[in-house]
Amino acid sequence: ENKQKSQETICVKKQQIYQQKSQAEKIKFMVKKAVINQDFLIYYQPQINIKTNKIEGVEALLRWHHPEFGSIAPNQFIPWVEKLDLVIPLTEWFIEKVARQHQAWRASDFSFIPISINLSSHQLQAPTLLSILNQNFLSIGLEGNLLIVEITEKTLQENPQNVFRLLHELKQLGIKACIDDFGSGTTSARHLQQFPFTQVKIAQSLLQNLEKYPEEISMIAAVIALGHTFKLKVIAEGVETENQLDILRKLDCDMIQGYVFSKPLNEIEATQFLSFYSDDQNKS
Ligand code: C2E
Ligand code: MG
Ligand code: MG
Ligand code: MG
């Protein structure tokens, strides 16, 4: 009887492995199809200067709304894109799309608006990255300094030499750089000095702990002071409450991004947000 039971367990386990495998195959297939069909969307989240209350940038964020499974987070599908070796076509599509949006905004009233884009380790290693950026942004006359490349602390840790070289190459093109999710890992403060960053983004996790552990305020204060020491603009993201906003204002943070002002918006909503804000700005 015992033998039969263990055989049953083996059977169940095999079935589970099979299901997991076929699920993975299914995801792979879906991701491949989505990249080929360009089923992704780009959302833009406004960044507000909390000293002037003006909108001073937007961050482009990748979105995938699957007809059957709904919206799938970028952190979930980007690793699959990487496993499938589809980073280059996705990056090309993404950069071209952002450049077009940038051009459209430039043609209207928002010629000033800088756009931040996120690049993963894999994307940074794409041999065609610089030429894609050149072709799409610089060849159509968009100033490099209106483009900001965000690189997470984690990516920097995984690949310091590569990131160092790339950021210098981008700098030559006038493109700026931001270290994203700073304070979530264990980057050395030295990185802020040694790498050519112009901005630092405080990790969302630091803000989330703020309401629970008020002593986290000094952590944030330290990151802001550190950023300012190296002449970097400091951005806090994931700001959800007025209370967090108040604290950040008192701590002399420069910019914020978060639900308290706006969620990431689709192209149409983002354009409306920009025109609302620039009308406001013109009036004041
Ligand atoms: P990230 O670059 O740190 O982006 C910030 C994330 O915080 C975004 O999530 C944004 O929607 C979310 N967020 C903004 N405000 C709030 C808030 O007030 N509260 C909360 N709880 N969340 C807020 P999203 O769009 O899901 O992106 C997650 C991560 O996926 C990004 O983190 C980035 O690392 C990655 N990602 C997104 N788009 C791209 C892309 O085009 N390329 C690459 N390589 N990575 C991307
Ligand atoms: Mg999300
Ligand atoms: Mg980012
Ligand atoms: Mg971040």
Automatic annotation (TrEMBL):
Occurrences of domain EAL (ranges): 24-278
UniProt-recorded name of the protein: Diguanylate cyclase/phosphodiesterase
